[in-house]
Design a protein that fits this description.
about 350 residues, alpha/beta, two-stranded antiparallel ribbon, about 20% strand
Length: about 350
């Protein structure tokens, strides 16, 4: 086939997005009961049925659920009969979306359902997340997620990249913006509070809560039939830092920068950025790595400081960016997801709407 005949990669878009109202605890509901309304909502937006979906991919963590292969129970919410083509990642749902995107690129499916969920309320998330650390040197010391984020924040302060009032302003802006988000867990004026681990105060840290999210992807003309203004994925890439915290510069995120470059984020300016920054200090790192100027609207949804369901917050960033394109509030948006301590793994997606 000549280059003139090669149609190039398929155009794939986010055509629907739904999420729960995020709450401190949903002890009255199982993961399946929490997930089912979201799945029904996202399908209803497109008029599709489960049988119309070509591929299904989910993201969750057995460590949160406290039992092995917990994701198989969630399939009750999807409906696994008639048989479906299904996969799962032990990661944030943003990485499940990446797998679904590659599946659609192959042409094996035209539509994909991606969902993720996390119930953080039953246990201590700070302790659970220590299991992400190096099992020989770091994990046995049990440094929790907030302590590690505080190390990163202190490194930023020592380098002169920010100060405590600037960090407080990030939290205040995020929760103020979240007042327009009916799904957010924390909104409006949230006191900065006492130090949790210096220099991070309560207002610099994400809330603990339960939640779920789902998106539908579609390719080519199928996407245009399902959505009035699809959010086309123009580029998506993910990269990882070294596992050992001691060999990293915690004031920078080279993996985010590289993922953004490979996703085409630096080719033209974006007008919106949904950043998965669970701590106020991490927004400082990401803004610098992604070269976001003052004209970019950052986390208009409130971001992870307003709601941070583990394993779903990254997928929500992609969904929120896509939703702004759907309703015409954005033309070119960047979405970011992270996993691991101190921004260890990072995914960047660039979404665009058709010209208006």
């Amino acid at each position: 086939m000549t280059s003139e005949e090669d149609p190039g990669p398929r155009d794939i878009a986010v055509v629907a997005f739904a999420q729960t109202g995020h709450r401190r605890s949903t002890e009255e509901s199982s993961e399946v009961e929490m997930l089912m309304p979201v799945l029904h909502d996202v399908l209803a937006q497109t008029g599709l049925r489960t049988a119309d979906i070509g591929f299904t991919c989910s993201g969750s963590s057995d460590y949160l659920a406290g039992r092995a292969f917990s994701f198989t129970l969630a399939l009750d919410g999807v409906g696994a009969w008639p048989p479906i083509s299904e996969s799962h990642v032990e990661m944030d749902g943003a990485w499940a979306l990446y797998e679904a995107w590659t599946k659609l690129l192959t042409g094996d499916a035209d539509t994909a359902l991606v969902y993720s969920y996390g119930k953080c309320s039953p246990g201590s998330v700070r302790d659970v997340l220590t299991r992400q650390l190096d099992p020989y040197y770091a994990a046995p010391l049990w440094p929790d997620a907030i302590a590690l984020a505080a190390l990163q924040a202190q490194a930023l302060l020592d380098a002169g990249h920010t100060d405590e009032p600037a960090l407080a302003a990030v939290g205040a802006r995020s929760r103020s913006d979240a007042t327009a988000n009916p799904h957010a867990q924390l909104t409006g004026h949230v006191p900065q509070g006492d130090y949790v681990v210096r220099p991070l105060r309560t207002g610099d840290c994400p809330p603990i809560g339960d939640g779920a999210a789902a998106v539908i992807l579609a390719a080519g003309e199928r996407a245009r039939r399902l959505c009035e203004r699809p959010a086309w994925i123009r580029g998506i890439d993910h990269r990882i830092e070294a596992h050992g915290l001691g060999v990293r510069d915690l004031t920078d995120s080279p993996s985010t920068r590289l993922a953004a470059e490979n996703a085409g984020a630096f080719e033209r300016p974006v007008d919106t950025a949904e950043l998965h920054a669970p701590f106020s200090s991490q927004e400082v790192v990401l803004r610098r790595a992604l070269r976001l100027g003052d004209g970019v609207r950052v986390n208009p949804s409130g971001g992870a400081l307003a709601a941070n369901p583990v394993m779903a917050a990254g997928l929500i960033r992609i969904g929120e960016a896509a939703a702004r394109i759907h309703r015409g509030a954005s033309d070119r948006a960047l979405a970011h997801a992270t996993s691991g301590p101190c921004l260890q793994q990072n995914l960047v997606a660039v979404l665009e709407g058709d010209p208006r």
